[in-house]
Amino acid sequence: MTAREYHELLSRVSQLPRHKKEELMAVLASQVRADKSPRRSIMELEGLGKEIWEGIDAQEYVDRERDSWDG
Predict the structure, then answer these.
(1) Which pLDDT does position 71 carry in this prediction?
(2) Domain regions of the chain by residue span
């Protein structure tokens, strides 16, 4: 769904009477509860992109970055 479609949908929902909004919320909540997508762990990201830092000394990098803050 594009951002435009999303905003159009929100606009249409905002025009619904309260009881229809509540009905829609109940249906959506039921769908979310039924979604059995597996939970993800932040630990799955461990090591991601490590090749980017190969051969770079961490302290030298931090020192260069801090030096750049002074202009």
Answers:
(1) 63
(2) 3-34
